[in-house]
Amino acid sequence: MTPQAAPISATAPRRRKLWEVLEALGRPKVGLMLALGFSSGLPFMLIGNTLGFWLADAGVKLAAIGLLSWVGLTYSVKFVWGAMVDRIRAPIFSGLGRRRGWMLVSQLLAGAGLIAMGLVDPKAQLAWLVAAALVAAVGAAVQDTAMDAWRIESAADPEELGLMTAAYNLGYRFALILTEAIILMVAKRLGWPLAYVLYGAGMGVGVIAVVFAREPARADAVMEDKSRAAHEKPAQGVLDAIAGPIVAFFRAHGLGMAALMLAAITFYHLCDYMRGPMSNPFYKALDIDKDVIGWTRLFVGTPGSFVGITLGGISALRLGVMRSLLIGALLQPLAIGAFALLGWHGGDWTLAAAGPFELTAFEAIMAFDAFAISYSGVALISYMSTLTSLGYTATQYALLTSALAWTGKILKGFSGAIVEALEPGRTLLDAYALFYVLSAALGLPAILLCLVLSARQKQAHASD
C-alpha cells in the first residue's frame, strides 16, 4: 500500500481539558458538519418510515408500503456512487471540487424529489410517487457518499474526526426529529403534500453549508493524481476505480479479518432495518394519535437519542470501539423486542404516575429505543470511519455502508407481507407483536460476529 492510501489512524486522542473541548467544538468544520448532518438526515425518513405513515393514512396496503421501502436500496449501492464521486467531477458545479460539487448536485436532486412527492396523490398516482421518491433517494444516497468522504478527509486528526462525527450525528438526529415527530403535527394541520414540499425546501440548509465549506486539499490532490494516471493509462485507471478500493481494504486488514469486519457490519443494524417500514403503521394500529406520537418522539425520544449519542461517543473513547459495538449489538434487539409488549397488551398503558405526570409504556419503550439505536449508530460510524484509505475514501466507506444496508433494505421490503402472513388466526396487534419478536431475533448474528471480531482483534494485538 502506498503512503497515500494509509488508513486513518484509530488512535485515541489525549484527554483534553474542558476549555479545550469547548474551543474544539467551535471549529468551523465541526459547525458545518452539524448543518451537513441535518441535510443528510432530512430525506432518510421522508422516503422511509414517515412515507409509510402517509401511505397508511391514504389507505395503501401494507404489502405495497413494505415494497415501496425498496427505494431505499439506493443507499445499498453506495459503492457505485463512491466510485463516481471519487473519479468523476460533478456536473455544473465541478469548480467546487469533487466532494463539494457532488454534495451540492445531490442536495438539489434530493430536494427536488421530495418536493415532487408532495405534488402527487399517493392513492391515485402511486407510480409517480415512487418515481419521485426514487429521485430523492438517489440524491440522498449520493449526498451521503460525498459527505462521508468530505468528513473523513477534512479531519485533521482522529480527535477532529470524532468531533465531526458527533456533530454529524447531532445534525442528523435533529433532522430525524423533524421528519419523524414534528412532521406528524405539521401533516395533521397542513396535510402531507404541503409538509413534503416544505421539508424538501429544507435541503437548502445543506446547500448553504456546502457554499461555506472548503474542499479537502490533500485528498483532492490524490484524486487529481489518479485522474492524470487514468488519462495516461485508461485501462489501468478503470481497473483501479473498480478493484482498487477493494484490494486496498483487504490488503490493509487481511483477507480473514476484512471478511469478518464486513460480515459484522452487514448484520449490525439488520433488526432495526426489518422493523422500520412497519413502525408507523403499528402505531396507527395501536390507535395512538399523531400528536401523541409526535410529542413522544420530540420530548421523550429526543432526549433518549442525545443521551445515546453522547454515551456512544464516550463509550468508544473510554471502553474502546469494539466493546461499544458489542454493547450496541446487545441493546438493539432488546429495544426492538420491547415493542411486542404493546401489541400483546393491545395498546398503551400507564407504568407510573405522580400527580398530573405519568409515564406510559409507549413513552418508556420509545425512549429506550431512541437511546439504543443512537448509541449503536455512533459506535458503528466511529468504527467504520477508521477503516478507509486516502484516495479511496468515498468508495471504501460506501462499500462499508452498502454492506450495512444491503441485506436489511432488501428484507424490510417483505415486512408488510410478513405482518399480513402472521395475521390469520390472530388479531392484527398480535401479528405485529410476533413480527417485532422476529425482527429482534435478527440481531443475534450481530452479537455473535462482534464477539468473534473482538476476540480476533485481541489475538492480533497480542501477536504484534
Q: What is the molecular shape?
A: globular
* Quaternary structure: single chain
Rg calc: 22 Å
Uncertain segments: 1-22
Whole-number count of domains: 1
- What's the number of helices? 22
Provide the CATH topology. Growth Hormone, Chain: A
Derived from helix and strand composition plus strand pairing, the structural class reads: mainly alpha
Tell me the helix content: over 70%
Order of the strands making up the biggest sheet: 1-2
Task: Explain how this protein is built.
This protein is 77% helix and 2% strand. The protein has a single domain, classed as MFS general substrate transporter like domains (Growth Hormone, Chain: A). It contains 22 helices and two strands. It is mainly α. Mean pLDDT is 81; it is low at 1-22. A two-stranded antiparallel ribbon has the order 1-2.
Summarize, please:
The chain is an all-alpha fold.
List the helices and strands and how they pair.
Elements: H1 18-25, H2 28-46, H3 49-57, H4 62-68, H5 78-87, H6 98-117, H7 126-154, H8 158-190, H9 192-201, H10 204-212, H11 217-232, H12 234-253, H13 255-268, H14 270-275, H15 279-285, H16 290-318, H17 321-345, E1 350-354, E2 357-360, H18 361-385, H19 393-411, H20 415-422, H21 428-441, H22 444-463
